[in-house]
Amino acid sequence: MGRRTTKILLLFGLWAALVLGACSRKLNYRDGRYRSARDMVRLKHSSRGPSRPAFKTKDKYSPAGGATTKTVAKRPFRAGNATGTLATVIGAARAYQGTPYLFGGTTRLGLDCSGLLQLAFGEAGVAIPRSSNEQAVWGAPVAAPDLRPGDLIFFGASPGSRTITHVGMVTVVDAEGVDFIHASSSLGVVENSFESDYYLSRFIRAVRPRL
Question: pLDDT tens for residues 148-205?
Fold first, then answer.
């Protein structure tokens, strides 16, 4: 390679470095200063506002005997703002947290989803139907955006299903979202975020209990 060719290549490399550097500086220019790509990502993330405190947990729910893996959002305990009878019902349901799932179960040895609600309401002196399908008509229909603590929410076994196979009760509704308590087939009685993709895709209806 001749001296002239080497000189041309060096000049071309220098020119390319200057051009690429200028482009990079232009792309990462914000608030009157140049920032690294990592800083730009952090700025973009912070501009979305505070994120909701959510943790991911893997769970299995198989009301019909088939195991389906899901990922749902589980948040730390939040007290909620229910009052009166509904506060008593929610407190009773929460007292069963950790109880294992048992199809047809109605005791602390094991509970299914509708059994949990029947026991919780019963401890507050309110008798409700036993099955989730019966509970689904025990109250006035409520739209999802209008949910309140104490409302019952019903789900299908798969996205888009209109056959009710699962029920839970709303425990908290606030600026951070909607939480509900239910008897999960693998975790037992637990609270989850209603707004996880898993539950929203399977949501069928909600009712406000007749109190």
Answer: 999 999 999 999 999 999 999 999 999 999 999 999 998 999 999 999 999 999 999 9
Question: Contact at 8 Å (CB) between 175 and 202?
Answer: no
Question: Virtual CA dihedral for 191, 195, 200, 202, nearest 10 degrees?
Answer: -10
**Residue 170: burial class (beta carbons within 10 Å; 0-12, 13-18, 19+):** buried
* Geometric angle at alpha carbon 157, from 154 and 159, rounded to 5°: 90
CB of 74 within 8 A of CB of 192?
Answer: yes
In angstroms, rounded to a whole number, what is the distance separating the alpha carbons of residues 114 and 181? 11
Report, as residue numbers or ranges, the catalytic residues.
113, 166, 182
DSSP state of 101: B
Q: What is the pLDDT of residues 6-30, one digit of tens each?
A: 555 565 555 544 444 444 333 444 5
- Beta-bridged to residue 188, according to DSSP, are 184
8 Å CB contact between 11 and 19: no
Is-contact 122 96, C-beta < 8 A? no
* Cα–Cα distance measured from residue 131 to residue 66, given in angstroms and rounded to the nearest whole number: 20
Cβ neighbours of residue 43 under 8 Å, at least 6 residues apart? 30, 35
